[in-house]
Design a protein that fits this description.
This protein has four domains: about 5-65 and about 305-425, inorganic pyrophosphatase (n-terminal core), CATH 3.90.1640.10; about 70-120 and about 255-305, CBS-domain (Roll), CATH 3.10.580.10; about 140-250, HprK N-terminal domain-like (Udp-n-acetylmuramoylalanyl-d-glutamate--2,6- Diaminopimelate Ligase, Chain: A, domain 1, 3-Layer(aba) Sandwich); about 430-549, Roll (Diaminopimelate Epimerase, Chain A, domain 1). About 35% of the residues lie in helices and about 20% in strands. The chain is built from 21 helices and 24 strands. The strands form five sheets. A six-stranded parallel sheet has the order 3-2-1-16-17-18. The longest helix is centred in the first third of the chain and has 16 residues, at about 15-30.
Length: about 550
């Protein structure tokens, strides 16, 4: 996999989405054509409003970047149909150095695995099963196909039968004596140009005579065979080879191991590896969500290196990154938040700029390097900048944010103030989503002195919608904290018009007592002139934690 995913944090906000799309465009225009914008969470109404406004599709959804089975499986599946003769299956396996062969039906669903071990058990029975060495379990059509034989005459060639193989290499008297020991209609004779033996077999009414070496069959013998319902095949091989191939005409449907382990193509490779190591099988069919076989996985495939590279935008902590990021190669980070606990195996490009939004940083990359900035991408970056800085009213906004915003206005012809009004009216998350989803629409996990907690933010025009669903939101926040085992879970509901916020806390009493803002209701605090999670709320919560410790 050669693509590079440019991806923001879990539960992405508008800045995360816009900066991912923008930076992927920048990387493609500056020499990294495999850069692809991605997201690891759902969009919301506000994000969808912006994407529609500028005619840009949402980034690809990627829930987990850890290697999956599909990343290492063999896509060119060598397989057999149930009616494939074992001789053909063994030839394919020998040419391709395979130990097992998937047996698929016409819908490409795996019926089982045919193994070399099981096929050789049939062809080389043990000393206690020598009687099976003369067993031919096949149709005459299958025998002719396996031998590449010419069908001189055949009755019911498609019917599968359980026949006894007999070699006509003895004297006529001994052959007659041997014939008398078996039911003629269950006998398949392999013989050369011993015409007396051929005729005796025909007169006895055996099921089939295979004449070897493309040797002759007399016309009167052929006519007698037709009268007696005896099938005649002409094999190009010698008697020994013909006898071996007759037994190999059995179809792989009789060789199937129906108890087999398979994997979904989207299963995590680490999970599949654990299961495979406990299995005696050497290969495993890979199926998609519809049950269609799309690949085969051998134990050696687990040794393959999966080349998956990431560029993280709008975050720099693994606790906020897409699942599986620790198993991928992070090659760049573009961010404007505090530094978190993230280590890399080699040096990387890390641009951490203390501005109000990551969209500002991305737009600045275009502007400083003179890279053409398409109008729709400029519009997205303008939207991300306005959203994260509350149109430059947030305390996180800097003069550079203002300067970049002015340039983006000129490039797009959009008035930032009017666009901000449209943006923040574009949809109330508290109205459009159930409370459990609303509180995680922009939620981040943090670690402070080994303490794990979450802080979410919702931006609204006024607090009317919040008070209408307050009880559901409070209960959802408590449930979210309990589910993840956090020390506490906080939710900042911000009124973008009045520049005030309400802080909801799901926490134990010592931490609640440390919060010195006015408590308007149990667990709900009024934070005048607090609008920034990053610059105002997080430092305050860290201070409270240090107090109670």
């Amino acid at each position: 996999m050669n693509e590079v995913l440019v991806i923001g944090h879990r539960n992405p906000d508008l800045d995360s989405i816009c900066s991912a799309i923008g930076y992927a465009e920048f990387k493609r225009r500056t020499g990294l054509p495999e850069a692809v914008a991605a997201r690891c969470g759902d969009t919301n109404e506000r994000i969808d409003f912006v994407l529609r406004r500028f005619g840009v599709p949402a980034p690809r959804f990627v829930a987990n970047v850890a290697p999956k089975v599909r990343d290492v499986m063999q896509r060119n599946v060598m397989s057999a149909l149930p009616d494939t003769p074992v001789a053909e299956a063994l030839a394919w396996m020998d040419r391709n150095n395979l130990r097992v062969l998937p047996v698929l039906d016409e819908a490409q669903r795996c019926l089982g695995l045919a193994s070399v071990f099981k096929m050789m058990q049939f062809h080389l029975p043990g000393a206690d099963r020598l009687f099976e060495s003369r067993r031919v379990l096949a149709s005459l059509h299958g025998v002719a196909r396996t031998l590449s034989a010419r069908v001189v005459h055949a009755t019911e060639p498609g019917r599968e039968e359980d026949l006894t193989l007999m070699i006509g290499g003895m004297s006529l008297e001994s052959f007659q004596e041997r014939l008398n020991q078996y039911e003629p209609r269950k006998i398949l004779i392999v013989v050369g140009d011993r015409h007396e033996v051929q005729r005796l077999a025909v007169d006895s009414g055996v099921r089939c005579i295979v004449v070897t070496g493309n040797l002759t069959i007399r016309d009167e013998t052929i006519e007698a065979a037709k009268r007696n319902g005896v099938s005649l095949l002409l094999s190009p091989h010698d008697s020994m080879t013909t006898a071996m191939l007759c037994r190999a005409a059995i179809t792989v449907s009789h060789m199937i191991e129906e108890d087999f382990l398979s994997f979904r193509d989207d299963e995590l490779l680490a999970s599949a590896r654990r299961k495979a190591m406990e299995s005696y099988s050497h290969a495993f069919p890979v199926i998609d969500e519809s049950g269609t076989t799309v690949g085969i996985l051998s134990k050696s495939d687990f040794l393959k290196q999966v080349d998956r590279r990431l560029i993280l935008v709008d975050h720099n902590e693994l606790s906020q990154a897409v699942q599986g990021a620790e198993e991928a190669e992070v090659i760049e980070i573009i961010d404007h938040h505090r530094l978190g606990a993230l280590s890399t195996a080699q040096p990387i490009y890390f641009l951490n700029d203390p501005v109000g939004s990551t969209s500002t940083i991305v737009a600045d990359c275009f502007l400083r390097q003179g890279v053409t900035l398409p109008r729709e991408i400029a519009g997205l970056l303008l939207a991300g900048l306005i959203s994260d800085t509350l149109n430059l009213t947030s305390p996180t906004a800097t003069p550079r944010d203002a300067a970049v915003l002015k340039q983006l206005e000129g490039m797009t012809g959009i008035n930032a103030t009017q666009f901000a009004e449209d943006l923040f009216r574009s949809g109330s998350i508290l109205v459009s989503r159930p409370a459990p989803q609303a509180i995680t629409s922009d939620c981040k996990e943090y670690i402070e002195d080994d303490l794990r907690f979450s802080v979410a933010q919702i931006e609204e025009i006024g607090f009317t919608q919040f008070w209408r669903c307050k009880d559901e939101v409070v209960e959802a926040l408590r449930a979210y904290r309990q589910k993840h085992g956090y020390l506490f879970s906080a939710l900042l509901v911000t009124d973008v018009t009045r520049q005030n916020s309400l802080l909801l806390m799901a926490a134990d009493e010592p931490l609640m007592d440390a919060i010195d803002y006015p408590e308007v209701e149990p667990g709900i605090f009024e934070l005048a002139e607090v609008v920034s999670r990053k610059k105002q709320l997080l430092p305050f919560l860290a201070h409270c934690l240090h107090q109670i410790r």
